[in-house]
Fold these 2 entries.
Entry 1:
Amino acid sequence: MRRRRILGVKFVYIAVLAGILAMVWDRVFEDYHKQVTEAGEVLRPVVQQGHAGPAGSVTFSPDGRWLASGSWDGTIKLWNVADGALLRTFQRYTGEVGSVAFSPDGRRLVSVVRDSTIKLWNVADGVLFRTFQEAGVGPVAFSPDGRWLASCSQDGTIKLWHVADGVLLRTFHTGWVRSVTLSPDGRRLVSNGEDGTIKLWNVADGTLLRAFQRHIGTVRSVTLSPDGRRLASCDWDGPIKLWDVADGTLLRTFQRHPRCVGIEIFSADSRWLVSMDEDRTIKLWNVVDGALLRTFQRHTGTVRSVTLSPDGRWLASGDRLDGIIKLWSVADGTLLRTFQAHIGTVRSVTLSPDGKLLASAGNDGMVRVWNPQDATLLITLFAFGADTSVTFTPEGFFAGTGEFNKYVHFVKGLQVYHFNQFYDAFYRPDLVEKKLKGEDVSQKSGGLRIEDAIKNNEPVKS
């Protein structure tokens, strides 16, 4: 009885260190659990840390080789997509990292800290390349050639920066600004503000070209079409409006959208757009005539993030309530598959440039990579400090960098097993890499399961 109490205390200690991650692993290993469940007890890894706070932003590099994640714990991490290894952790912030984005050539990574600064990093070596002394309030925007950067500030201005030397090129004076968006040719800049106005600026000389002023409340979301001819916007309480960029004409109002949460994306040919509604639906609109083409409506919570496949055939959406990602057919609105991705809000979903990988980030601090074709979880990424990480596949294979073995234990019931006891059989970086390429690695352990590995090992003693 005393031994069970001691082990129970140790289990509680590790569970506290793991926090919400212990519950997450029940989902990560769901298929595997079906094979190893014994007398109601399941063997699972317990990890002491992923991102210590919600992972709020995740993005692929333009060439699809890297994955960057930013978290409310003040960290930015760069991952190798080929094998899931943590390449580096960029200097820790004191505030929440609101967003991260790669430059068009993939050589730089920009990060925005809520109510703090904008920093530009060298991807190759992790060196801080430039700090822009600016209180950013929203995502920044690169010019198409990556030569300059636009930001919006709490002081009600938009600033244009020269990336190479950090020189402030010009300031656009306006009201409280929520975000900035660049036209595809980089010649015009769109800002949206708290006063319900949208403004179009000439980047070359900073002049105001026109203002779109028919919103009643705060403009929540603005998106430019890929051809640069149309602009879609929505406010907190009203429907979506579609504008002609050339002359500022209001082309139409999408009346069947009671409360827009955000406009995520136009199709590549600019013929339709996708929006999110507070009624937990996603809507697909015909830009030409304003018709509602279809409604995607099987989320249990408000949709937080949407991404579209490069070929426009399907879209993925993340839920802010139950950690669900859904994959939909754009052609007919069919729900193709459901991912049980995170605990709590799915804050970001994004596709690799070739559409073969889907990455997600959530309030549970997890970053995961999926095969969108069959909803298969490929890997889950964990990081500990600046240079230590571990990557797991659902089959139990793992790879890591640094002294990752110090941060992971396996738990079954009230018994705790050290990570090193599974190292020889399941430390397989080669299989983690194969998994990311879409190969089946379920039969690669020679019939040995993680469950089998504990038979000849004793639990960790107190």
Entry 2:
Amino acid sequence: MNRDIWERVALIRAGWVTGAPWTPRASWTPQAEAAEAAMPAASEPVSRAVKPLWREFLNLAVKIAAIALVAVLIFTFAYGFQRNTDPDMAPRILDGDLVLFYRLDKTYTVGDLLLLEFQGKRQVRRVIAKAGDTVDITEDGLMVNGALQQERDIYQQTRRYEDGISFPLIVEEGKVFVLGDARDNATDSRVYGPVDEKDTLGKVITVIRRRNL
């Protein structure tokens, strides 16, 4: 009987006894009681392994490196920034403004801004005419397909250059005719003619003003 009582006590301590009826086990030894007493109670929480601090820093460094790599790839192959140092697009783009352009889109429409390189210098220019359009510059101003162009935010008269190309001209396939917004002295298609679309650097998608930086 005493063995049954001790067995009952051991089970209570181990947390194995509930309100259900209890029956003593046929085999009982002091060694079994000691093993049962050493077992943790069911209600005790199980401790979780804590990661070393150096591993947490390593994981953070890997994440930062991955984000930086993605950013480098995006701004190497898809997007680009260019600080404007050319006054020929004033007042739309001023000296010191930051230009964001998209390298993968070289399908232009009239009015788009694009980035190109001429004689080792990058410049932003506005698309005036596309393939198949006839461009002429007369005493009245800029003519495209026989129509005088009324351009918004252009405050200077569009004139030919004495040492520039001849007009009228028809824009060839795959090319665009571009002008700077500051028409008096801009280096544009009046100097180097229509530009091959595939030779451009990309389409300008936004301009960040220098005063906002």
